[in-house]
Specification:
The protein is an alpha/beta fold. 40% of the residues lie in helices and 15% in strands.
Length: 479
């Protein structure tokens, strides 16, 4: 049977989505034909060619979920999306699966409506990162045009759904499968792969113009071993990992399939959960002369030694992104990071001296951040500037922390970006001001820094005025 897998804006357009490549491999192994439509990447390229960069393509990280984004982007590409829909339907696709995240849900719903209008019998299936929470699945199944929702990890449930649809001509409920109109079968239960080593190699052949991406993304873990209060990874998935040898086999397979595409990024929350496996990966890459460059997110841990980091550099590691988040020990403790500032500083130093670029993710405006704690963070940046290759900042969002409102003195039921603490000490204008000061400090110390893609202090000041207008309108509407 022919199946289309779709990624709508807004998402990172640099790398092809590894989960679609993995699902494609799993479906093809069962005899199905798969077409991948990375509409997110396509629209980014079209905007670049036309030199049309709508303001909603940059800036606040949740903007894809806004009505403004849909109003601005969708009409421009409606005709193109309709033509694309007609083509995939004419090619015989009877089931279309969407990878859903909160930032691309509105555009996904609009594209699904186009498909359903053209062919009411085509089956629309939602799954992906935002379907790892059962309550979200219950919302999506009621959306217009959605026939089924895959709850949790779709490695087993999606192929089963497609198999049953091909053999019987109808969708069947089952573990991890919610069907519209069959409420009695909606259960918070799923089947997940236990051994990630047994997963097939990701199949990227379905991505159009593969060489237009910055490289390939590969996944080697599920979940995370750390339990940061703001992160969902450890809450939504049990932690599992591939072995070092299996990761090497994935590298080898991808290089054999596309020898000119030699740049990789690990799409995992954590690369270095097992240092023996990481060392084994590096040993195999070096001994086999694999010509690949790669980077990853990693946790700060004291046993990331100079020797291991040198092996990683020799094996092609070009950058590591550490979740530093703050330079204040009190905030790091309240975030449940489990790492003091001195250890962050030491691992940044070791990594930089090994010749690997360091990227530090950085949060401004954590609920308990005071002016004094903010100044401690700025002092950390200044003291460690030479070992920070890049600073990736974000204004703190409470999207994943609504249930912790009492713990962090948050007013209940607030907007995820415009929130405030009950005492009024931490507000959106305060956070905007601190972000500007963070970018100024980074500029003064020669650190490459940005927030939501904005790196210039002058550009941030201009955008800050736009955000303040949005904030004031939001506050006026709430009164």
């Amino acid at each position: 049977m022919k199946v289309a897998l779709v990624l709508c804006p807004r998402w990172d357009p640099e790398f092809p989505l590894a989960s679609l490549a993995l699902l494609s491999a799993q479906l093809k192994s069962r005899g199905h034909e798969v077409e991948i439509l990375d509409i997110n990447h396509m629209i980014t390229m079209l905007d670049s060619l036309d030199q049309k960069w709508p303001e909603s393509h940059t800036g606040m990280s949740n903007v894809g979920a806004s009505e403004d984004f849909v109003r601005e982007v969708f009409p421009r590409y409606r005709g193109w999306l309709e033509t694309l829909s007609k083509r995939i339907l004419a090619n015989g696709c009877r089931l279309v699966g969407f990878s859903i995240y909160y930032s691309n849900l509105p555009m996904s719903l609009e594209f699904a409506k186009i498909l359903k209008k053209l062919d009411p019998d085509v089956k629309i299936v939602f799954g992906g990162p935002s379907c790892l929470v059962f309550s979200d699945c219950l919302e999506y199944i009621h959306e217009e045009g959605v026939d089924a929702v895959i709850f949790g990890e779709g490695d087993i449930s999606l192929p089963r759904l497609v198999d049953d649809f091909e053999s019987s001509g109808r969708l069947h409920a089952g573990p991890g499968i919610l069907l519209k109109g069959e409420e009695r079968t909606w259960k918070e239960y799923q089947e997940t792969p236990e051994n990630l080593n047994e997963l097939p190699h990701a199949d990227y052949s379905g991505f159009a113009m593969l060489d237009s991406y910055a490289g390939k993304m590969i996944h080697t873990t599920r979940g995370c071993v750390r339990k940061c209060v703001f992160c969902l990874d450890w809450r939504e998935m049990r932690f599992r990992r591939m072995s070092g040898r299996r990761i090497f086999e994935e590298f080898s397979h991808q290089l054999a399939c596309h020898p000119k595409m030699t740049s990789f990024v690990f799409g995992d929350s954590i690369l270095n959960s097992s240092l023996p496996d990481l060392a084994e990966l590096c040993r195999l890459l070096v001994s086999h002369g694999a010509k690949a460059s790669w980077g990853s997110f990693a946790i700060v841990r004291p046993d990331m030694t100079e020797n291991l980091l040198a092996k990683m550099r020799d094996a092609g590691c070009r950058w590591l992104s550490y979740g530093v988040e703050s330079g204040a020990a009190q905030l790091l403790g309240e975030m449940n990071k489990g790492v003091p500032p001195a250890r962050n500083a030491e691992i940044l130093r070791r990594t930089a001296q090994a010749g690997i670029k360091t990227i530090a993710t950085w949060m401004v405006g954590f609920p308990s951040e005071t002016e004094q704690l903010f100044e401690e963070s700025i002092a950390f940046l200044r003291a460690n500037a030479k070992n920070i290759g890049s600073l990736r900042c974000s204004l703190f969002s409470i999207r994943t922390m609504q249930e912790m409102a009492e713990r962090f003195d948050l007013k209940p039921e607030q907007d995820e970006m415009f929130w405030a603490t009950k005492d009024g000490a931490n507000t959106f204008p305060v956070r905007l001001n601190r972000m500007r000061r963070t970018l100024e400090a980074a500029r003064d110390e020669g650190i490459d820094a940005n927030c939501w893609g904005i790196s210039s202090v002058a550009d941030w000041e201009n955008y800050e005025r736009t955000l303040m207008r949005q904030y004031e309108a939001h506050m006026a509407a709430a009164c």
